[in-house]
Write a structure and sequence with these properties.
Elements lengths: L31 E4 L2 E8 L8 E7 L4 E8 L9 E10 H4 L6 E4 L6
Parallel strand pairs: 4-6
Antiparallel strand pairs: 1-2, 2-5, 3-4
């Protein structure tokens, strides 16, 4: 038995594109984790999202706690459909966060 199928993608569909808006309150994809030695996020993507498109803002909140807020610095103007987003990681060292620290991600998580 042979099965076949066809998928047609209309690259001009605007509803599939993520609007980065004003960089503040950037909504990330459906997952994030901060476990030493790295912080991982899944960001919404139109196909060209890279780690360099984000500026992590790290604030020392004392008592070995660091708040991290990701800001978008370059919009993703591609038109690919990426419903699962793009997974990216930053090491604690890269973010200037000492080992054994507690990290709180300030961005909203959602689809």
């Amino acid at each position: 038995m042979r099965l076949s199928g066809c998928i047609v993608v209309d690259a001009d569909v605007r509803e599939s594109r993520w609007d980065w808006g004003d960089n503040f309150g950037l909504v990330l994809g459906g997952e994030a984790s901060a476990r030493e030695p790295e912080l991982m996020i899944i960001a919404h993507s139109n196909g060209c999202t890279n780690k360099e498109d984000f500026a992590p803002v790290v604030r020392d909140s004392r008592d070995d706690r660091f708040d991290v807020d990701f800001r978008g610095v370059n919009p993703d103007n591609c038109k690919a459909l990426m419903p699962d987003g793009r997974r990216m990681t930053w090491s604690f060292a890269e973010l200037g966060i000492p080992r054994q620290s507690r990290v709180v991600l300030m961005n909203r998580i959602g689809r």
